[in-house]
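seq as requested:
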Amino acid sequence: MKPIYTIGITGGSGSGKTFFLKSLASHFTETELCLVSQDNYYRERHLQREDNQGVKNFDLPEAIEKDRFVEDIKKIKKGESVILKEYVFNNPAATPSIIEIKPAKILIIEGLFVQYFTEIDQELDLKVFIEAKDYIKLSRRIIRDNEERGYDLSDVIYRYHHHVMPVYESLIEPLKHQADLVVPNNARFEKALETLVLAIKAKLNGLSV
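struct tokens:
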């Protein structure tokens, strides 16, 4: 089997990683590109650490089942499919889907700690960092956490200031300088997306030889 080219995409919560990825994936077929998202590797809610106010903190590295995350990445790079259950946090209205990830020529690994976890970072051939201004990230998080996870406004703001930003500033943002491509995503990212699409297509042509 030919080597799978692996791209890591990271950035702060609310930076727009998901929308950027959907836009990127729309340019490729399932045999050309597959995606592994860190969001589906969170530990069960009862295993998450609580802060001194009794609020579960999902923004710590230990919130993730890192070993399973790494194992599945390695399986895909060996040409094996991976089946997992969608993680729906604490949203009782959401029905988790069963996800099958089939190997493709390009593997994209997305998540907050993709560069932070050394075992994953060393699997990456290209590192992409999505960034946005803090107030924009907060507004995006408010909308997402209300619609997808059922959090109310005060809960989202509390988590952002006490969980999200401390981890981002201490563990995630410093890694931006180790990325190969930094994408500003305050309003538009079309030029950066076009550049990455062209680079991936060129890589695909090379992998087809």
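Residues 153-172 form the longest helix (20 residues).
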